[in-house]
Design goal:
149 residues, two-stranded antiparallel sheet, 6 helices, elongated, mainly alpha, 434 Repressor (Amino-terminal Domain), single chain, 2 strands
């Protein structure tokens, strides 16, 4: 994968410092990847994917296919552009969208207390253990038994 990162840097005419800044990682992290010390983490792969959305992910991950995604052109105008305003449902700051997401909805957390299960852990003290016998097995199939006095 480091070779493909180098190819992206060459095609996009970026130095290592510029590439690291563009994807949002430290120069040291990129240096470790390029020197073969570390493999790129999933976080680095995602950052490269987000910074270079025209890069074919199959090529980047597995080395298969073309480096860039194919450019899809259409001879027909998009009939839906004039009918849908993509910002009408979501404000530019995303606050209304985030407010309604399940992962962030903590407003009803107080009402869910009735579903909480309480468990009590009891510590049971066991009697102390005493050695009653020790056996040593030998490779010739014999053994010796030792018992405390």
């Amino acid at each position: 994968m480091k070779d493909r990162i180098l190819q992206i840097m060459k095609k996009e005419d970026l130095s290592a410092a510029q590439f690291a800044e563009k994807i949002g990682i430290s120069q040291a992290s990129l240096s470790h990847i390029l020197n073969g010390r570390n493999n790129p983490s999933l976080d680095v792969v995602i950052k490269v994917r987000n910074a270079f959305q025209n890069i074919n992910l199959d090529w980047f991950l597995f080395g298969t296919g073309d480096m860039y995604k194919p450019v899809v052109t259409s001879d027909f105008p998009n009939l839906f552009d004039s009918q849908i305003d993509e910002n009408s449902n979501f404000p530019s700051d995303g606050s209304e969208f985030l407010k309604n997401r399940k992962e962030i909805d903590f407003e009803n957390a107080e009402n869910d207390r009735k579903n909480v299960v309480h468990q009590e852990v009891k510590y049971v003290e066991l009697p102390s253990k005493k050695i009653t016998e020790i056996r040593i097995f030998f490779d010739n199939g014999t053994y010796e038994t030792f018992k405390p006095a």
